Amino acid sequence: MTKPVVHFEIGGLDLDRLVSFYSELFGWQLQPAGPEYSLIPGGGNDVSIGGGLLQTHGEMPPCVTVYIAVDDRAGELGGTTVVEPTAVAGIGQFALFRDLDGNVVGLLQDDDQRTAEPGACRSQLGVDLRADGRIAGGPTAFGPV
């Protein structure tokens, strides 16, 4: 079965500027989720997925990351870990890996060990975002990414 994209993030050095730009460009009604994150609504009766705008810092450059509901096979195929599997309260676990060409991709697995449904994390992901761009909670074990 094909694995769906379930969440996305757009990161930049100035969150207020990102919020202003994307809300004006696309008409998004962004929801603040801490000082360095704003949620982009999605899901519901809409066919869109949710996402977030993220304040980046230091070594984390501006970026776009997509999160895919997927089991842990990236490492087997030559990918490398960027962020170890990390718990997100009420959601499950996420991790980031770098593919063979250097693209960073997010993985998301829900608490029930099923793959996440599109929009599943739209209301909570990012609430506990740390200054380094990672979600607080620490590593958990859903295998190598």
Automatic annotation (TrEMBL):
Organism for this UniProt entry: Kribbella orskensis
Domain of life according to the entry: Bacteria
Name of the protein: VOC domain-containing protein
CDD domains on file: SgaA_N_like
